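Researcher: Next entry in the queue.
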Amino acid sequence: MDKVLRIISILEKEIEIDWFLKNQDPFKVLIKTLLSQRTRDENTDRASRRLFSKFKNARQLAKANLNDIERLIKPSGFYRVKARRIKEISRALVKNNGKVPKDIDGLLNLPGIGRKTANCVLVYAYGEPSIPIDTHCHRIPNRIGLVKTKNPEQTESELMRIVPKDKWIEFNELFVKFGQRICKPVKPLCYECPIERLCEYENKSLK
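Model: Structure for this entry, 207 residues:
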C-alpha cells in the first residue's frame, strides 16, 4: 500500500466521519460554505441558522433587503461583502429556476464562487467525488510530504492525481478534523499523531 493510502487508512480508523452531512440542501451548502470564509465554524453555524430561519431558498433571498441579510449573517464576519454576494448568487440561481448546478463549471460561473466552495457543494450536497481544498487540506499534505505545492489549485490537482477517486469524498473531512485536533497550524501534537512515522515534517515535537 503506498503512502497516501496508508495515511488515509490510518486516519479513517482514528477519525469519525459525519456521513450524515452529505446530501444536504445544495443551496444551503453553497451559502454556508460562503459564510465559512475567514471565520470560525461556530460563527458560520450561528450565521447560517439565523439566515435560514427567515429566508429558506434562493428566491426569497433574491428579493430580500440587503440590510436584513447583513444583520442576520453578522456573526460570520465580513458580513457586508458576504451579504452582497449572497444576493448576487441568489439572483443568478433564480434565473436557473433556483437550482444549484451539479457540475464544477456551472458552480464556478456563479458570482464569486471559487473551487473550494464549488467542490464543497459537489461533495456535501451531491455526493460527487471532489476534493475541496481549504487551509487544512493545503497545509497538511505539504507539511507531511504528500505533495509539494504552492497554492490550493496546485494542491487540488496533485491530490486528485495521487489519491484514489473512491477516497476523494472523505478526504476533506478527514484532513479538516485531523488539522483541528492534532496537526494544528502552530504547535502540532506530533507526540499524539497516528501517522507520525509516515510524516516528513522537519520540526516535529515528540515530547
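Model: The chain has two domains: 3-17+131-198, 23-124.
Researcher: Noted, moving on.
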